[in-house]
Design goal:
5-stranded parallel sheet, 211 residues, globular, single chain, Rossmann fold, 6 helices, 30% helix
Length: 211
């Protein structure tokens, strides 16, 4: 990846992970600075797996991850409180309403910003969905809920898997504008996993996993 120009938010040292049929990462290291880092790759190259490893949602076979000096291995709870990650296809929150889900995130992240949340609810046209249970929402609307929480969370490390999938054109434009702002954030690292770079978003780095 490109060389960071600011102090790293996330340090990865010697990461190793394999599935029974394939090694995805072997002695892999990286430093992620503030701004937007792109994880680029084709199907099956490990984009989602890498995000899950960085989130501490999937246990690595080897290596060390730390956010601002907080190490996953020794301070897992504190580490995870610095990370926003919601698997886009999860059904774990299906019985909640978006309003309840936002309450859960608000209680999790000390830097949760209700002003940003309100902007996202408006910009993603979520107001009419707030009191419906999540299982009732379309795939696109559920993804909008995760995205609104992600940007509002204030988390030092925010992980976004295919953030434009299933979104309407207006919502894609809104998320691109949020990422353009995120690119200049001095204290948050956003990691976007996708097949291509988000249009018009200055990147702090690129992790290319290949086609």
């Amino acid at each position: 990846m490109t060389t960071p120009t600011a102090p790293a938010i996330l340090e990865v040292k010697g990461l190793g992970f394999r599935y029974p049929e394939r090694t995805l990462f072997a002695d892999w290291s990286a430093s992620l600075p503030p701004g937007v880092t792109l994880v680029l790759g084709g199907d099956g190259r490990g984009k989602t797996t890498l995000l899950r490893l960085l989130a501490g949602d999937l246990a690595a076979d080897a290596g060390e991850l730390s956010i601002k000096g907080i190490t996953l291995e020794t301070r897992a709870k504190d580490y995870r409180r610095q990370v926003f990650w919601t698997e886009p296809r999860t059904e774990a929150f299906d019985q909640m309403t978006p309003a309840h889900y936002f309450d859960v995130q608000r209680s999790t992240y000390a830097g949760f910003d209700d002003g940003v949340l309100a902007t996202c609810v408006h910009g993603l046209a979520l107001a009419s969905e707030l009191n419906k249970q999540l299982f009732m929402l379309s795939t696109g609307s559920k993804r909008k809920v995760w995205l609104a929480a992600a940007f509002a969370s204030g988390a030092a490390l925010t992980l976004l898997d295919m953030p434009f999938a299933a979104l309407d054109k207006a919502s894609i434009g809104f998320v691109l504008a949020l990422l353009q702002d995120a690119a200049a954030h001095p204290a948050r690292a956003f990691v976007v996993a996708d097949y291509a770079a988000p249009a018009g978003v200055p990147l702090a780095g690129v992790i290319d996993l290949g086609d």
